C-alpha cells in the first residue's frame, strides 16, 4: 500500500504552519496513521515528495492501541486517534491530510496543549470529599464514565467549546458523571451547580460528541444520569439523595 | 521546608502523591504525559488481594507463598510478606474511592489468575488498570485543589542532582517550552518499565522510554536482576506493537493448543495437570516456544476462548472481545486466536531495599521501574498491587527519613538534555532481542556483547543506553542457571547458590556485577504491616 501523507507542520507555536507531503509505503495492510508517523520518525534519510529532508515530526502517542487518548489529531478532516485510523481507509484517494486538533494551542507539528481539558476538571471539582462506598453490584455508570480518554475529540467537534471558554463539554462531563450522584449532599450541590453552569446550560444536545468519541462512550446515557442527579433532582429535592444502589 | 519530587504519574506515582498528601506532605508530580496516558491504564486482568470473597479459604499467607514460588524464590521475602498482608486493605481503599470493580453483594468478585491456586484477582472486566487510574486521578485532583500536590505534566526527567553522593533533586525539561529547571527535595522514581528499549516487541508503551533508567545508571545508581524480562505468553501483533490478550482469558477458561498430527494438542493441560493453562507466565511462554519447535507440531499456538459462556463474555470480558474484533477482525467467542510471546514486564530494575530506598540517599524507586516483589517471574495481578503498595511505601519511607530541602543550588550547565535517535534505539533493541529471548546461552550473549561493543553513542543518552544494555546482557551471561524468566539452555537447572540478587552498577565507567544475598525472612515482625 502506498499513500501520500499531507501533514500540516509547524516548528513551534510562533512559527508559520506549512504542509509537508511524504510518500509512505508499507505491506502491513492494518497500518495506521500512528504506524506511519512512527516509521517516518525512525527512518533514516526520509525525504518528502520534493526531495527535502523530513525533520522528526512532533506528535504525542503512548499506548498505540486506542486506550490512552494521546494521539488525537485531525485526520481526513475528522478528529480521531492516529492509532485507530487505518491507512487502508484512504487508499482509494491515494492521500490523507493530517493536522493538529484545532481547538487547542499548537505546541509543534501535531502536538497540541490540551491543558484546558485537565483544568476544566479541576475547576469543576471532579473528586469526592468523602468515601464513595461499595456498590452492591458492578456499577455500570461508574465503569462507563471511567473510560474517558481525555483525548479531546468530542471538544473538537463541539460547536460550543473553545479552550479557555466557559463551556467545558463532554471531556469534563463524562468523568464528572462517575461521581455526581455519589457525593455527600454539600459537595453534590456544588458539583451539580458547576455541571449546570459549565455543561448543561450551554449544551445544544446535538450529540455530535457522542458520534465522534473514539472510545464509543455512551455519552447520552451518562448525561441523562447526570441530568437526573444535577438538574431534575433539584425539583425533587424533597426526595433527598438518590444514588446508584450504593450501600452506605 | 521539605519537598518530595515524584517522577511519573502512573499507579505508583499517584499512590506516592496520595500517601504524602494524606500525611500533609506536599509533592511535585512530574510526568512526561498526563496520568491518562500512563501505561497503567492499559492493565487489563486485575489486582491481586487475598480478600477471600469467593469462599475458598484464601489467606494473605497463601498469597505470599504463591508470590514467592511464582518468583522462584528470588524476591525479598519480607517485602513480599508485607505486600500480601496489605493487599486486602489497599483493595478496600480503591473500592472506597469508587474504582469500578466487578462487585456482588457489596464485595469484589475475584477471578483465577496464573500461578495462584485460589481466586484472588479483583477486576473490572478487562479494564482494571483504567478503572483504578480514573479513581486515583480524581483523588489526587482533590489534593491538587488543596495545594498538596502540584502537577508538572509535559515535563521530562533530565538528570538527578547529586551532591556528596546524595540525591537532592532533579533537573526536568518542559516539553512545550524546552526550558530546563532544577527542583530540590527527596526524589521518588515511578517512571515505569524499560519498554522503550524494545520498540515493537513490547505490550507496554515506549513512552516509558528507559531514558530515566539509562541516565541514572550512568550517574551511579545500582540496578538488579536486569536479566529478568517477562515474556507474556498471549500477545497478538498489531501495527507497531504487541497487543496483550489478558491472562484473564485463560483465568476464565481459555485453553492453549497447537495443531499436531491433524488434531489439537492441549500441551499445557497434558504437561501440567494441576494448574494447566494457568501455570506462571515463564512456564507457559517457554512451553509455547518449545512446542512450536517440535517437528510434529505445526503453525501458531492458538488461544481457544470459544468455550467461554455468554455471561463471561458480557459481564467479565466484553472489552477484550471488542478489542480482538477490532484489531484482528475475528470474534474470539467463535474462533481461536493465534498468539505469541511478547515482552511484557521488567522484574529487574532499580535496586531497592524493602523500604524502596535505592543505593543513593534521598532517592527512592517504586512501581515497575524498581526491582521488587516479583523475583524471577511476576504473577499476573501482582504488579498493579506492587505499584500501589510500593508507591505508598516509598512515600512513607521518604517521610521517615526526613524529606530533603526544597531549596538548593545547582550547576545549570550540567543540565543538558539529549535523547537517543530512534535508529540507534532500534540497533540496541535488535541486539538485545537476539540474545535475551525466552531461551538463552553463553555464546549468543557473548556475541551480542561484542556487537554492542561495536556501537558508539553520538550523544549522552545513546552512550548511557549502551551501558545499561551492556549490563542487561552481562547479567544474563553471569547468571549461569535457569530460574523463572531466565532460561539458559547451557545451564538448564536452578542453582541454589545463585538464589541471590544480581546487582549491576557503573563503577569508573565499567559495568560491575555482584551477587548479593537475599534478606532472611523475619518472623513475627511488626514491620510487616
Ligand atoms: C497491556 C498491559 C496489561 C497489564 N495488565 C496488568 C494486570 O492486569 N495486572 C497487573 O497487576 N499488572 C498489569 N500490567 C502491568 C502494570 O500495568 C504495570 O506494571 C504498572 O501499571 C506500572 O505502573 P507504574 O506506576 O510503575 O508505571 P506507569 O504506569 O508506566 O507510569 C510511568 C510514568 O512515568 C512517566 N515517565 C516515563 N518516563 C518519563 C520521563 N523520562 N520523564 C518524565 N516522566 C516519565 C510516564 O509519563 C508515566 O506517568 C499490565 C501491563 C501492560 C502493558
Ligand atoms: S451535545 Fe453538542 S453542544 Fe453538547 S457537548 Fe456534545 S457536541 Fe457539544
Ligand atoms: S468523551 Fe470520548 S471523545 Fe471526549 S474526551 Fe472522553 S474519550 Fe475522548
Ligand atoms: S497512542 Fe494511545 S490512543 Fe493512540
SSE diagram, text form:
The complex is a heterodimer of chains A (248) and B (529).
Chain A: E1 2-9, E2 18-25, H1 33-42, E3 72-75, E4 78-81, E5 95-99, E6 106-108, E7 111-112, H2 115-124, H3 140-146, H4 153-157, H5 170-179, H6 185-200, H7 208-212, H8 219-235
Parallel strand pairs in A: 1-5
Antiparallel strand pairs in A: 1-2, 3-4, 3-5, 6-7
Helix pairs in contact in A: 2-5, 3-5, 5-8, 6-8
Chain B: E1 4-7, H1 11-22, E2 27-30, E3 47-48, H2 60-70, H3 77-96, E4 103-104, E5 107-108, E6 110-111, E7 121-122, H4 128-145, E8 149-152, E9 155-163, E10 166-174, E11 180-184, E12 186-189, H5 211-218, E13 223-224, E14 229-238, E15 241-244, H6 248-251, E16 255-260, E17 263-265, H7 267-271, H8 281-292, E18 297-304, H9 310-316, H10 318-328, E19 337-346, E20 349-351, E21 363-365, E22 370-371, H11 382-401, H12 422-435, H13 442-453, H14 460-478, E23 501-507, E24 510-516
Parallel strand pairs in B: 1-2, 1-12, 2-8, 12-21, 20-22
Antiparallel strand pairs in B: 3-7, 4-5, 6-7, 9-10, 10-11, 13-20, 13-23, 14-15, 14-19, 16-17, 16-18, 18-19, 23-24
The complex binds flavin-adenine dinucleotide, iron/sulfur cluster (2 copies) and FE2/S2 (inorganic) cluster (FES).
The site of one iron/sulfur cluster has 13 residues of chain A, from helix 7.
Structural account:
The complex is a heterodimer of chains A (248) and B (529). By secondary structure, chain A is of the alpha+beta class. Chain A has two domains: 2-112, Ubiquitin-like (UB roll), CATH 3.10.20; 115-243, Alpha-helical ferredoxin (Fumarate Reductase Iron-sulfur Protein, Chain B, domain 2, Orthogonal Bundle), CATH 1.10.1060.10. Chain A has helices at residues 33-42, 115-124, 140-146, 153-157, 170-179, 185-200, 208-212, 219-235; strands spanning 2-9, 18-25, 72-75, 78-81, 95-99, 106-108, 111-112. In chain A, the strands form two sheets. Chain A has a five-stranded mixed sheet. In chain A, strands 6-7 form a two-stranded antiparallel sheet. In chain A, a hairpin with a 2-residue loop joins strand 3 (72-75) and strand 4 (78-81). In chain A, helix 2 (115-124) runs parallel beside helix 5 (170-179), helix 5 crosses helix 8 and helix 6 packs across helix 8 (219-235). Chain A is elongated and about 65 Å long. The mean pLDDT of chain A is 93. Chain B folds into two domains: 1-38 and 126-228 and 347-529, FAD/NAD(P)-binding domain (3-Layer(bba) Sandwich); 232-343, Flavocytochrome C3, Chain A, domain 1 (Alpha-Beta Complex). Chain B is 33% helix and 22% strand. Chain B has helices at 11-22, 60-70, 77-96, 128-145, 211-218, 248-251, 267-271, 281-292, 310-316, 318-328, 382-401, 422-435, 442-453, 460-478; strands at 4-7, 27-30, 47-48, 103-104, 107-108, 110-111, 121-122, 149-152, 155-163, 166-174, 180-184, 186-189, 223-224, 229-238, 241-244, 255-260, 263-265, 297-304, 337-346, 349-351, 363-365, 370-371, 501-507, 510-516. In chain B, the strands form six sheets. Chain B has a six-stranded antiparallel sheet. A five-stranded parallel sheet of chain B has the order 8-2-1-12-21. In chain B, helix 1 runs parallel beside helix 4 and helix 12 runs antiparallel to helix 13. Chain B is globular, with a radius of gyration of 22 Å. In chain B, 60% of the residues are buried. The interface between A and B is large, with 56 and 54 residues. Bound molecules: flavin-adenine dinucleotide, iron/sulfur cluster (2 copies) and FE2/S2 (inorganic) cluster.
